[in-house]
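subagent[fold] <- orchestrator: predict structure for attached chain, return tokens only, no commentary.
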Amino acid sequence: MSTIATPRWTYTLTPEDLEWAARMIEGEGGDPGAVLWTMAQRFALLRGDRFPTFRSMLQAYSSPINPRYNPCSPADVAAHPLDCSDAAQARRARRIASPPSAEALSFVTGWARGEVPNNVPRAVHFAVGPQVVRCQAREGSDACLEVVGKFPAGNPSERQNWHATTSRTSSWPAGFVRVGGTGGAAVAATGGAGLVLVALGAAGLWWASRRRA
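subagent[fold] -> orchestrator:
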């Protein structure tokens, strides 16, 4: 049994949650561990207020697995041309209809067991840089505050995901959000230094090959 937990709240991850998380990291750019941790921290922040399951939040947040954009409405096409291109819609349809790869599911399963250190502590948003800058300019408690990670790091020619905190999460104490389960130690939202990253195994080879592609 694997969970996302804070000192006062615990959510048990289901096989369906893990399958959709694997679909998500196959569709999103950047670092898969950072994406998963950002989504876990966002789910802990919302604590089921808007989404009853981790899967439902992932689908609402991540355009590569969001059924809202399949098919896109004319308004969606105008507002989100990249997400609503013919190619993007075709990829989304295949991703939603097909099971995730064994490698992606292995990575997510290792993360859920507590084997992937958190490299984006307190982040609850991720997007490409210009979108995060616009998010920082917004008003309200869900506006982006501090950027705590940019991936792929050090290569400006590649599309980057920026991961950001909000005013509601920037003051979280160390270890406020934890992910872990049977077969692995719980990893806190403070970096997890010293733990062996599951990326050293087959799932890590899959991720390395994606970055070279």
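orchestrator: received. Logging for downstream: Helices lie at 15-27, 32-46, 54-61, 74-79, 86-97, 102-113, 129-136, 202-212. Strands lie at 2-6, 9-12, 125-128, 144-151, 161-166, 178-181, 184-188.
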